[in-house]
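ok so for the tutorial part 2 we go from a plain amino acid sequence to predicted structure tokens. step 1 is just haveing the sequence, like this:
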Amino acid sequence: MLKSEQINELAAALAKAQGQIEGAKKSSSNPFFKSKYADLAECWNTCREALTANGISVIQMPEEINENGRLNITTMLAHSSGQYISSTLTMTVTKLDPQAIGSAITYGRRYALAAMVGLAQEDDDGEKAMARPKDKKSVESPINITSVSENGAVRFINGVQCQIQDRNGDWHDIEFLKIEVLEKLLNDDKYVNAHEAIRAAINAKAVGTK
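step 2 — the prediction. this is what the tokens look like for a chain of 210 residues:
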């Protein structure tokens, strides 16, 4: 994290703003899985008024993608006093096409904004990105299948846990698959309904290995 020599005025202003900010609501829908989540616009609208009222602006800057497909997104909180703090989030762009790049930038901006401001998001992406250890018993416990893709290759458990089915008919939690396996899944149209969750898992793993 980078910061100005002093951040006392920024810290005081941010504390006041955080006392006024509520959780971001689930205003967007995922047409594939009939689930709702808080998108970037909702996160920004939730904190905009409180930040502005306390003299705080948000600046987010994506940088050039490097040869390893890594994209840095720097988020800065700047105070009217001239004080600032900034932090950089590194994302892995799995496909170098406009849609994938735009998706990664939007995803990164949303989570970086929430982290810098202290905004709680009422969506399911965080659970998808968690690599929580599970023993065999917990994996085999009763599940509540809340949605299944039309081709039957992707399903969601309890609305948040994404699983894909292999050629043998076995189901796998994407958060436990290796990055190289997840990247192959992104190139397979059979799992297109899981691509958003797969990108989240890849990004979480990439951050965890830094």
